[in-house]
């Protein structure tokens, strides 16, 4: 009862979990026992587009699975232990990866590289072998580097399809809508701010000029708002004081993006949201992956939209973004090479 009303509530309030088709899908979560993995598993359990939920972690996934499996929605749930990764991946159409360590105060996302790069590479190699046609959604940071790692790993295995590998940057979009709402009085659920570039600090480029409420904001208020969207993650890291980074808002954002992709895969038209994908937009500048509005469809990425007109301030933000983003991407490439 609660789950159904929660699903209805989320759906009505946020359009996060809408369904346009009866076709359903097996979704796997790798890192399901973690701070993000647990609430993400909960939210996927109440998404009507998920028919089967496969929860994997090196520790704790069977417990999470037993727990969420009692929720009164249709989907089947199974938990898998460290040595059961292949079974967890079999038949999965969508694989969400929040596995890896989170930040502590004072750390940048890049500081996580050493630990998370190998975790993501090894998981991607298994996906390439067991579920080569799956759509892979990477939450593990630093996303600017983990996505190139996944792409190269799949490429090495001969199964990279650029339409099926997504860096989840939805939390930046969610934050932009919320923070703009706070300063402008707009309702966050109807506030769409495209956030382009990458997913860390200065690589996060909010395009406030493309929102009716955002375009009037200038001067100090503008600087503060942009900073807050770029570094909002730090607020959570600081407040959690060593206990991790965003988990609940991230789980929400991860479930929201997963639902958008599932709707696209099921044939719904016009599902458009920013995500970090292989993109030609700035390839001439050596930036092979970029987040911009992407139309999601039956093949994953259907269409990558250009970033559109920019204000003078946004031109500067983009100028600052590109070299950093290139460095992060190259670091990911170098790791796999
Ligand atoms: P956490 O430490 O609470 O959970 C991570 C989970 O991954 C743990 O349960 C751990 O056992 C598991 N794990 C580690 N190695 C694994 C492997 N080889 N296979 C399967 N599972 C494995 O961390 P939390 O807070 O859930 O964060 C996870 C990641 O998400 C971090 O890298 C964090 O930086 C990132 N993140 C990304 C955001 C985004 O916007 N894309 C936002 C917030 C966090």
User: What is the count of helical runs?
Assistant: 10
Q: Return the average pLDDT rounded to an integer.
A: 94
From the structure provided, what is the oligomeric state, counting identical versus distinct chains?
Answer: single chain
Using the coordinates above, name the CATH class of the largest domain. Alpha Beta
Q: What are the segments in which pLDDT stays under 50 over at least 5 consecutive residues?
A: 1-16
Q: Give me the CATH fold name of the largest domain.
A: L-2-Hydroxyisocaproate Dehydrogenase, Chain A, domain 2
Number of strands: 11
CATH architecture of the largest domain, by name, is Alpha-Beta Complex
How would you sum up the major sheet? Answer: 6 strands, parallel
What are the distinct ligands in this entry? 1,4-dihydronicotinamide adenine dinucleotide
Query: If strands are numbered along the chain, what order do they take across the biggest sheet?
Result: 3-2-1-4-5-6
